[in-house]
Amino acid sequence: MLVTALLAGLIADITWEFWARAITPLWVGGPLQPAGLVQSVFGFQNLVLAEVIHGVVGVVFYPLGYLFIARPIARTVTPFLPWWVVGLGFGVGLWVFALYVMAHIFAGFPPFLGFIQLTWASLVGHMLFGLVTAAVVRWRESRGDE
């Protein structure tokens, strides 16, 4: 299960990074910069450390959250939802966590950054992350891998 979580996190994080750094600038004029949010939340200036923290959270902790929290809740509360809807919903939950809990409550920014264009680019990126996480987990489980 840990290998599945790490593989899902790695592939989802690569997808997120491509979206954030290659596609988002075409839409909003600049990349998504979650390391800047990490710096704001924790109050330090080290950009490399902030990138590492964001990377570890994306590769390790978010996929574990999907496997052990989001998916079991979805299976109990909404068992009729297909895996990909659960994955997209998980991504929306990550977006709420990032832009409301972390950015607003902890870093003091307006809720959801005031719903600027970057907010919506972040939503799409988090939904992609959730969808890819769910897809990799489903693929690994369909092969009998855990």
Automatic annotation (TrEMBL):
Lineage summary: Bacteria, Pseudomonadati, Pseudomonadota, Alphaproteobacteria, Rhodospirillales
Protein known as: DUF1440 domain-containing protein
Source taxon at top rank: Bacteria
Source species: Hwanghaeella grinnelliae
Keyword vocabulary terms for this entry: Membrane, Transmembrane, Transmembrane helix
Membrane spanning stretches: 44-69, 81-106, 112-137
